[in-house]
Amino acid sequence: MKKFNSIILIILLTSPALYGAGTTAADFLNINLGARSTAMGDSFAGVGGDIYSIYHNPAGLTGINMMQGSFMHMSWLGQASYTSALFAYPQKEWTAGVMINYLGVRSVTGLDEYGFKTGDEHNPYDLMFTGSFAMIPLDRLSAGLNLKIINSKLTEDVSGSAFAADIGGQYELMEGDLNVGLALRNIGTRIELGSSHSLPFKVSAGGAYYVAKDILAAAEISMSKAKTEVSGGGEYRRDLGPVNSSLRLGYSSGDSQMGSIAGLRCGIGVEWNEFSFDYAWRPGGDLGHSHLFSLTYKFGQPLAVREEMPFEEFPSEEIGYRRTINSFVAGKVLDKDGNEIPDVTVRVDRGGEEVARLFTDRNGNYQSQPMEPGIYELKVWEKGYLYHTVEIEILETSPVRMDFTLTKELDQ
Q1: 3-state secondary structure (DSSP) of residue 59
Q2: SS3 at position 322
Q3: Cα separation, 120 vs 125, whole angstroms
Q4: How far is CA 264 from the centre of its chain?
Q5: Does domain 2-299 have CATH number 2.40.160.60?
Q6: In what order do the strands lie in the sheet with 345-350?
Q7: Between β-strands 178-188 and 202-212, what pairing exists: parallel, antiparallel or unpaired?
Q8: CA distance 308 to 302
Q9: 93, 203 in Cβ contact below 8 A?
Q10: How many helices (H) and strands (E) does the chain have?
Q11: Shared fold status for 2-299 and 303-411
Q12: Of 221, 278, 360, 367, which residue is least crowded by CB atoms under 10 Å?
């Protein structure tokens, strides 16, 4: 009978201290993904608009308005690495995403029951493929679903597979300043690894709130069969010329048993044009520290301007409901110095109900689809700027041009 006497293998593949697991298997599912979320204490159930919502709460994908891909790498104890690749594809009514995760451990030598080396070399690993889908079924409510295929290998003779699903929801309050979320993760089949094991099912509930100019605070409580974890964190963003920088700090009670500072997290982020780089440091007490790196690239145009046509090129053909192709609203959003502001939210309401949500492109432009003529209210906001509201009338025969100049909160 063969067995392992490798501390690294035991720690990485079975340790409840690191993964928050009890008697479950495939505990790599509990390794939190994303340098940004890790630095904020893994409190991401209520955070939207981040590609790593695929892992934390798929409902958060509805906040993404540009196609993007991301790559993450984590080094752990010098003997293991965790790598993930993600892609998100947003559309007007829904967002789809995919994710691939791989946890690998360096070669481990097998031992027999007496502690003698057998000469066998093993390369244990965990692998997961995830397909994600999110949509907005009701005003302010987002819902998401993940379907996952999981494969784990301990030795050439011991391996297994399982299927699982994640279900999540997020609800927006206070005009986007506050998000609350709930996620049920790893609902799935049992996995055979020498014997039958359940997957590490977890329920997470949390919120994210923009406290002030460019300051995001988040908190989360997670419950599993093994324990209950409480986490929280924050992010401060600041523009440094063409670069947007971020400082992050967080804490999670899930790792507190590994040392006095093991629950702490910290990290930084740098965003330049379509690229963003994030780093997080996670102490592990006597087991050592882990370092996470994420690189994300956004491409294409924001949803609101993918099919943009110049004002003068719109024909005036009727398309039903006494509405014409010219019955739309468009404009530009600038700061007080005349600089274009990208990714600004422009919400279109009618009768107190949201009918469209637009986002400015990299040149500060936004444009709606054709709408039925009538009275509408535009609500414009961006983190760190004062909120704007204006009433407009959409006509049958000519578009409405509505530009905005936003003032930073600290400049008022």
Answers
A1: helix
A2: coil
A3: 16
A4: 20
A5: yes
A6: 353-359, 345-350, 374-381, 388-394
A7: antiparallel
A8: 10
A9: no
A10: 4, 27
A11: no
A12: 221
Task: Convert the pLDDT of each residue in 318-331 to its tens digit.
Answer: 333 333 456 788 89
Whole-number Å distance between alpha carbons of 332 and 319: 26
Adjacent-strand bridge partners of 170:
142, 181
Residues 346-387: tens digit of each pLDDT: 999 988 888 888 888 878 889 888 888 889 999 998 877 888
What three-state secondary structure class fits 74? strand
What are 156's two structure tokens?
């050439």
Instruction: Give the ranges where 1-125 is alpha helix by DSSP (H).
Output: 7-14, 16-19, 35-39, 53-56
Q: How confident is the model at residue 399, as a pLDDT?
A: 81
Residue with tokens 């790498």: 73
Q: Read off the pTM.
A: 0.72
Instruction: Give the start-to-end residue ranges of the domains of the chain.
Output: 2-299, 303-411
Asked whether 183 and 57 are in contact (CB, 8 A), the reply is yes
Residue 141 belongs to what H/E stretch?
Answer: strand 141-153
Kindly state the tokens that stand for 81.
């690495």
Residue appearing with tokens 């298997």: 25
How many residues are recorded in the chain? 412
**Residue whose entry in the numeric block shows the structure tokens 């099919």:** 307
Q: What is the CATH number of domain 303-411?
A: 2.60.40.1120
Least confident of 72-76, 177-181, 283-287, 317-321: 317-321
Q: Do 69 and 85 touch, CB atoms closer than 8 A?
A: yes
At 317, the pLDDT band (50, 70, 90 cuts) reads very low
Tokens for 284?
């592990």
Phi, psi of 292 (to 5 degrees): -115, 140
> What stretches of 241-313 adopt beta strand conformation (E)?
243-252, 264-272, 275-282, 290-299
Instruction: Dump pLDDT digits (tens) for 99-147.
Output: 999 998 766 666 556 555 666 666 788 999 999 999 989 888 999 999 9
Greater confidence (350 vs 279) lies with 279
Report the C-alpha gap between 120 and 118 in whole angstroms: 5
User: DSSP per residue over 331-343, as a string?
Assistant: EEEEETTS-B-TT
